[in-house]
Specification:
heterodimer, A: 519 residues, 24 strands, 27% strand, disordered N terminus, B: 369 residues, mainly alpha, ABC transporter involved in vitamin B12 uptake, BtuC, 4 strands, 70% helix, globular, disordered C terminus
Chain lengths: 519, 369
C-alpha cells in the first residue's frame, strides 16, 4: 500500500456524518453462549466503520444480525431512525443493507451476469432480458473500473475478482450499507489495493461500509471509525484519526490475562515432533502453495504456539501433519520415526493426535453420543477379541470426562446437547484418549467462553508436564504469548518469526504476521 | 442443573416411548387388525409362511442397512440376486465347458453356491470401488451396476429359463433344492438363514469397532476420517456385504422356486429400502439399526400377506404399501424434530443457569474514547 495512506481525505472525517443504520442494545444468545451483550453500533453515511475484535468477540454475529441472517434475542435495529426488523437477508437487501460473507456466495458454474441477477432476473414477462442485464452489468463494471466480461464464468475468475462481482451484485441492488466480513483474508496485496480503491469510490457515492478485518493496518488505512468488540460487548469506539494500532490492541485484548493461563514446565526434553521443509498445496487450488518450506521441531514437555492471520497456512500445515492433506515435499517425524507416508489412523496409533479447528465440521459426529464421540479414535484400546468392550469404554470415557472437565448429563447424551465449550472439550478428550506423544490443536479455543478456555489451557499445560509435545495454532496474539513456551509466526505460508514470549510484545507478533502487507 | 424437577408422570413417559418404538407398535397394530378380520391370519402355518416371505426382504434389507448407515444407497441388489441365481442355474443345468478336454464339468452343489455368493460379493466390490476410488455418487454407481448386472444375467441366460436345477446323482451335483424346501425344527431353512444374518449383522453394527466406524462415517465423514476411521475401507466393505446378502437371497429364492430367469428380483431393492426406512434409519446416514430394519421388513411382509388374506384387491395393496412408507417417514421426521427441540431446550436451560451465575462478572461496555 503506497498511495493514499491516510483515508480521511476521501470523506469528511469525524463523528458528524448522518447515522443511517444503528444497532441499539443488541443481545444474542446461542444454544451455548452469550454471543452479544447489549451492543450499540452506528453506521454513518459515506463512511467506513471498522469492526475489530478477537475471534469469538461477536463481530460476525453482529454483522449477521445487521444483515438479516440472524435475529437478535433482544434489542432493536434503526434504519434512518425508524425501527426495522429484517426477516431474512433478502429483506435486508430490500432495505439497502447487503453483506459479503467471508465465504463467497457465488455459483462458480454460472456467468458473472447470471450471478449478479441470480433469483431476481429481469424478464420480459417470461423470457430473461439478457441484453438489458448485460448492459447493466457492463455499467456496474465500468463504475468499479474492472474490465470483467459479463459472460465469464465466475469459477474462472480469481478470488479478488470474484469479490468484486459480489460487490457489483450488492451495488446493483442499490445498496446503502455494505458489510464486508474479512474481505482481504484470501487476497494478494495487489488485489487488496484494487478492493480499497473500489471501497473509497463507494463511499464517495455515499455508500456506507462496515469493514471487518484482522489486519489492523488495513483497518487504519481504510476506516473512518473503529469499533472494538470484546466478549460480545463494545469496549471502545473512536475516530481512526485520533488512535493508533497500540490503542486498538490494548482494547482488543484488555482482560486479565494471567487467570486464563497455567504455568508451563519450561524444561523441554528431546525432540518429539519434527517437521522439516514441509510444503503443502491448497487442496482446493493445487497451483497455490499454502505452506512453503516450513520447519518446526517440538520437544517433549514443550508447548509451541503458531500464530498467523487467516490464510497464513496454519490449518493446512496442521492437517498435513495429521494426515488429511498430502504434502508436496518435506518430512514429518514422530519420535525419530517418519510418519509422512502413514494414513491418519496409523499416525494416531503412532502417537500423534489432532484436535481440529472446526469442531462441527471436522471434530464431532452429531448423530453419536458423548461417549462414542470420545472413544472413536481409541477403539483399538477398548477392543477385546474383536468386540468393543463397553465396560472398558465407560471406564476410559469417565476418566476423560473428569480430566477434561466436560459437563454432561451422562455419557450417553447426544453430543449436540452440550454447550460449545463442552463440545470442544470432548474433541480434545478424544485426542487425549489416544495417549498421544504429540498433541496438535488447531484453534482450540475458537468460539468458546472464557471458563472453557482456561480449562483447555490447563489441559495443554498438564499434558506438557506429563511429557507430551504440544503444537497449537491460534489467531489470538494473547493466547500465543501466554499459553506457549515458544511462538512461531506464520504469514502467507512462510515462517516469518520465532519468539520467546517472555520478552516479546504483542506488537512484535502482529508486525511479523503482517509482513506482506507493508511491502 | 443436576436434580431439577422432572415431571415423571406415566402419561408424559408413555408418549415418547411409543414414538420411539413406533415401528414395533405399528407391527403389533397391524397384526391385531388382520387378526380381527381374518381367522386364518394368525395361525401357525400362516405365520411361518409369512415369515418365510419376510426372510428374503429382511436379508436384503440388512445389507442395505449397512450401506444406508454410511450415507450411501445400493440400487443394484435386485439385479445382483438375479445374476447370482442365473450363475447358479447355469452351472447346475449346463455345467462348465472345459475346452481343453472337450468335456463339460459339473461342479458340486456347494461349489455352485460358493461361486454364486462370490459373484454377488464381486458386484458389491465394484460398487465400493466406484464409490470410493472413482468418487461416483452411490445412487449413480449402483444404478449403473444394476443395469450391468441385469444385462450380464440376460446375456448369460440369453432369455432362457433354467429349470433343471435338481442335479443328478451321476453328475454328483444334487442337493441345491434342499435350501428352499428343507426345514430345521419345523421352521424353513431360509428363516434360519435370516436369523443367522440378523445376529451376525447386529454384532457387527452394535459390538465391533467396524460398527462404530460405520455410524461415524455416516454421521460425519470428515470428522470420522480425521479421527482415524478408514472411511474408504468401511464403504468398500458395506457394498461387498450388501452384495453378499443379495447373492444369498438369490440362491435361496432360486432354490425355492426351482427355476430362474433374467427377471428374478426386479425392483426388490425398493422393498429393502422401504424396510430400512420404516425401521427408522436415516437416508442421510448415521442413524438406524438391525432391530428397526427387521421390524420394518416384517411390517412390509405382514402388510402384503395380510391384505391378500383379507382379500383386498392388488391395486389397493400397492397403494397402501406406499402410504405406509410415507407415513413412517413423516412420523420419523416428527420424532427427530421433537428430539432436537428437547436438546435445544436443555442447552438453553443450562446457559440460563450458567448466565445467572456469572452475570456480575460479565464485562461491561466502557467507552474509553
Amino acid at each position: 500500500m503506497s498511495a493514499a495512506v491516510t483515508a480521511p481525505e476521501a470523506t469528511p472525517a469525524g463523528e458528524d456524518g448522518k447515522v443511517i443504520l444503528a444497532a441499539r442494545a443488541i443481545t444474542k444468545v446461542y444454544g451455548g453462549t452469550h454471543a452479544l451483550r447489549g451492543v450499540d453500533f452506528d453506521v454513518r453515511e459515506g463512511q467506513v466503520a471498522a469492526l475489530i475484535g478477537e475471534n469469538g468477540a461477536g463481530k460476525s454475529t453482529l454483522m449477521k444480525i445487521l444483515a438479516g441472517v440472524e435475529t437478535p434475542t433482544t434489542g432493536t435495529i434503526l434504519l434512518d431512525g425508524e425501527p426495522v426488523t429484517f426477516a431474512s437477508p433478502t429483506d435486508a437487501v430490500a432495505h439497502g443493507v447487503a453483506i459479503i460473507h467471508q465465504e463467497l456466495s457465488l455459483c462458480p458454474n454460472l456467468s458473472v451476469q447470471d450471478n449478479i441477477f441470480l433469483a431476481r432476473e429481469t424478464t420480459n414477462g417470461v423470457i430473461v432480458d439478457r441484453r438489458g442485464e448485460r448492459a447493466a452489468v457492463e455499467a456496474l463494471m465500468a463504475r468499479l473500473e474492472e474490465p470483467i466480461s459479463p459472460d465469464t464464468l465466475v469459477g474462472d475468475l480469481s478470488l479478488g475478482q470474484q469479490q468484486l462481482v459480489e460487490i457489483a451484485r450488492a451495488l446493483s441492488e442499490e445498496t446503502r450499507v455494505l458489510i464486508m466480513d474479512e474481505p482481504t483474508s484470501a487476497l494478494s496485496a495487489a488485489e487488496v489495493e484494487v478492493l480499497f480503491r473500489v471501497v473509497r469510490e463507494l463511499t464517495r457515492d455515499r455508500v456506507s461500509v462496515i469493514f471487518i478485518s484482522h489486519h489492523l493496518e488495513e483497518c487504519m488505512q481504510l476506516a473512518d471509525h473503529a469499533v472494538i468488540l470484546r466478549d460480545g460487548a463494545v469496549v471502545a469506539s473512536h475516530a481512526v484519526a485520533g488512535i493508533d494500532i497500540a490503542w486498538i490492541v490494548r482494547n482488543m485484548i484488555g482482560r486479565e490475562q494471567d487467570e486464563l493461563y497455567s504455568d508451563l514446565p519450561g524444561v523441554p526434553g528431546e525432540a518429539v515432533l519434527e517437521i522439516e521443509g514441509l510444503s503443502v498445496a491448497d487442496p482446493a487450488n493445487p497451483n497455490r502453495i499454502v505452506v512453503d518450506n516450513v520447519s518446526i521441531t517440538v520437544h517433549a514437555g514443550e508447548v509451541v504456539g503458531v500464530y498467523g492471520l487467516m490464510g497464513a497456512g496454519r490449518t493446512e500445515m496442521l492437517e498435513t501433519i495429521a494426515g488429511r492433506n498430502k504434502a508436496l515435499g518435506g518430512q514429518i517425524r514422530l519420535g525419530g520415526r517418519r510418519i509422512d507416508g502413514m494414513s491418519i489412523g496409523e499416525r494416531i496409533q503412532a502417537g500423534l493426535a489432532l484436535a481440529p479447528e472446526d469442531r462441527q465440521r471436522d471434530g464431532l459426529i452429531p448423530t453419536l453420543s458423548v461417549a462414542r464421540n470420545m472413544s472413536l479414535s481409541s477403539l483399538p484400546r477398548i477392543t477385546r477379541h474383536g468386540l468393543v468392550s463397553q465396560r472398558a469404554e465407560r471406564g476410559l470415557v469417565a476418566e476423560q470426562v473428569v480430566n477434561t472437565r466436560v459437563k454432561t448429563e451422562s455419557q450417553g447424551a447426544l453430543i449436540g446437547s452440550l454447550s460449545g465449550g463442552n463440545q470442544q472439550k470432548v474433541v480434545v478428550g478424544k485426542a487425549l484418549m489416544t495417549q498421544p506423544k504429540a498433541l496438535v490443536l488447531d484453534e482450540p479455543t475458537r468460539g468458546i467462553d472464557v471458563g472453557a478456555k482456561a480449562d483447555i489451557f490447563t489441559l495443554m499445560a498438564t499434558q506438557a508436564r506429563a511429557g507430551a509435545a504440544i503444537l497449537f495454532a491460534t489467531s489470538e496474539v494473547s493466547e500465543a504469548l501466554n499459553a506457549a513456551d515458544r511462538v512461531i509466526v506464520m504469514a502467507r505460508g512462510h515462517i516469518t518469526g520465532e519468539f520467546d514470549p517472555k520478552n516479546t510484545t504483542q506488537e512484535q507478533i502482529l508486525a511479523a504476521s503482517d509482513v506482506d502487507q507493508g511491502v | 442443573m443436576s436434580s431439577t424437577k422432572r415431571t415423571n408422570s406415566l402419561g408424559s413417559q408413555i408418549g415418547p416411548f411409543l414414538m420411539d418404538q413406533r415401528a414395533f407398535v405399528a407391527l403389533i397394530v397391524l397384526i391385531c387388525v388382520f387378526w380381527s378380520m381374518s381367522d386364518t391370519f394368525l395361525t401357525v402355518t400362516n405365520v411361518i409362511i409369512m415369515t418365510k416371505h419376510v426372510a428374503y426382504n429382511a436379508i436384503l434389507a440388512l445389507g442395505m442397512l449397512l450401506v444406508i448407515l454410511t450415507g450411501g444407497i445400493d440400487l443394484s441388489i435386485g439385479a445382483t440376486m438375479c445374476l447370482s441365481g442365473i450363475v447358479a442355474g447355469a452351472l447346475l443345468q449346463n455345467g462348465i465347458a472345459l475346452n481343453f478336454m472337450d468335456k463339460v464339468g459339473y461342479p458340486a452343489a456347494w461349489a455352485v453356491i460358493v461361486f454364486a455368493l462370490a459373484i454377488g460379493t464381486l458386484v458389491g466390490w465394484i460398487n465400493g470401488l466406484l464409490v470410493t476410488r472413482f468418487g461416483v455418487a452411490p445412487f449413480i454407481a449402483t444404478l449403473g451396476t444394476m443395469y450391468m448386472a441385469r444385462g450380464t444375467a440376460l446375456i448369460m441366460s440369453n432369455g432362457v429359463t433354467y429349470s433343471k436345477l435338481g442335479g443328478s446323482h451321476e453328475l454328483g451335483n444334487t442337493g441345491f433344492l434342499l435350501i428352499g424346501s428343507s426345514k430345521i425344527l419345523g421352521v424353513p431353512t431360509v428363516v434360519w438363514v435370516m436369523v443367522v444374518f440378523a445376529v451376525a449383522i447386529w454384532i457387527l453394527t452394535a459390538r465391533t469397532p467396524f460398527g462404530r466406524w460405520l455410524y461415524a462415517t455416516g454421521g460425519n465423514e470428515r470428522a470420522a476420517a480425521l479421527s482415524g476411521v478408514p472411511v474408504f475401507r468401511v464403504k468398500s466393505w458395506v457394498y461387498m456385504i450388501s452384495g453378499f446378502c443379495a447373492a444369498t437371497v438369490g440362491v435361496c429364492m432360486v432354490s425355492e422356486l426351482t427355476s430362474v430367469n433374467g427377471d428374478l428380483g426386479t425392483s426388490f431393492e425398493m422393498n429393502a429400502i422401504a424396510a430400512v426406512v420404516i425401521g427408522g434409519a436415516s437416508l442421510a446416514g448415521g442413524r438406524g439399526g438391525v432391530k428397526g430394519t427387521l421390524v420394518g421388513a416384517f411390517v412390509i411382509g405382514f402388510l402384503a400377506d395380510g391384505l391378500v388374506n383379507i382379500k383386498v384387491n392388488t391395486f389397493w395393496q400397492t397403494f397402501i404399501k406406499g402410504l405406509v412408507i410415507v407415513l413412517a417417514v413423516i412420523l420419523d421426521q416428527a420424532q427427530e424434530k421433537l428430539k432436537n427441540r428437547r436438546a435445544a431446550a436443555a442447552a438453553a436451560a443450562s446457559v440460563r443457569t450458567i448466565a445467572a451465575g456469572t452475570q456480575e462478572e460479565a464485562p461491561q461496555a466502557t467507552t474509553t474514547a
